[in-house]
Write a structure and sequence with these properties.
By secondary structure, this protein is an all-alpha fold.
């Protein structure tokens, strides 16, 4: 069973994703959602371009990172 922290990360990731991506993500099993959310957090932490964007608009940086993570979904 996922922890509250995992649930929070998945929810934040879903909120950052576009509506179309959000629907695709919700159709995935919980474990896959958690993996994508972890990849999203890693993208936010590792990409220096997003660091700059997050200073200007944290929501825009989160959205951009979410789109990068879900772009490979079928």
């Amino acid at each position: 069973m996922p922890t509250d922290d995992t649930d929070d990360t998945v929810n934040r990731f879903l909120n950052a994703a576009s509506p179309a991506a959000r629907e695709k993500i919700r159709q995935l099993p919980p474990g896959e959602q958690e993996k994508l959310a972890a990849a999203w957090e890693a993208e936010l932490a590792e990409d220096t371009d997003l660091d700059t964007l997050s200073e200007l608009s944290p929501a825009a940086a989160e959205s951009e990172a979410a789109e990068r993570v879900v772009q490979n979904l079928p």
